[in-house]
Specification:
Blueprint (H helix, E strand, L loop, with lengths): L2 H15 L7 E5 L14 E16 L2 E15 L5 H17 L17 E9 L3 H7 L1 E15 L1
Parallel strand pairs: 1-2
Antiparallel strand pairs: 2-3, 3-5, 4-5
Length: 151
């Protein structure tokens, strides 16, 4: 993986760590997201991993590189009130997403490169039926940043 991907992942962790979110949470950068069991989830667990990197031509002599960072989020749901607990967890995930919408990331840009926010998407959306069975909220947020450069 490139230094830029690592820098982006670290910046995502730093942004989440510095945020005031509606629930308590633990955030860490990891090398893969491993689903946790309900008994392991005393608070929201947020895991940040490197995603893919795609390079392409956008115009003559102009290339662009899209870099993705994945943010996995899991929390144990209240078995007695799974729907309300799931709604609160979904609000937390949306609040995490809103930390990044259109915002530059500190520590990533320098004189030679500038990464712009392109898009976010929940690649694994919240599934209420699964949550009711397993009593665990799980979702995966994908954040994509773009760097255009002359070749």
């Amino acid at each position: 993986m490139s230094d830029v991907q690592v820098d982006l992942a670290k910046a995502v962790v730093a942004r989440i760590e510095g945020a005031t979110l509606p629930e308590s949470f633990a955030v860490a950068r990891t090398y893969r997201i491993v689903p946790l069991q309900a008994k392991e989830l005393s608070q929201f667990q947020v895991r940040v991993v490197l995603g893919n990197r795609v390079s392409s031509m956008s115009a003559r002599r102009i290339a662009q590189r899209n870099v993705t960072v994945l943010v996995g989020m899991q929390r144990k749901l209240d078995a007695q009130n799974a729907e309300a607990s799931g709604d609160a967890a979904n609000e937390f995930a949306t609040a995490v997403e809103e930390l990044f919408l259109g915002q530059p990331l500190a520590g990533v840009d320098d004189a030679d490169r500038h990464y712009s926010f392109v898009e976010s998407s929940f690649t694994t959306p919240f599934d209420p039926e699964h949550a009711a069975e397993e009593h665990v909220f799980s979702t995966l947020l994908s954040l994509t940043y773009r760097h255009a450069f002359e070749i």
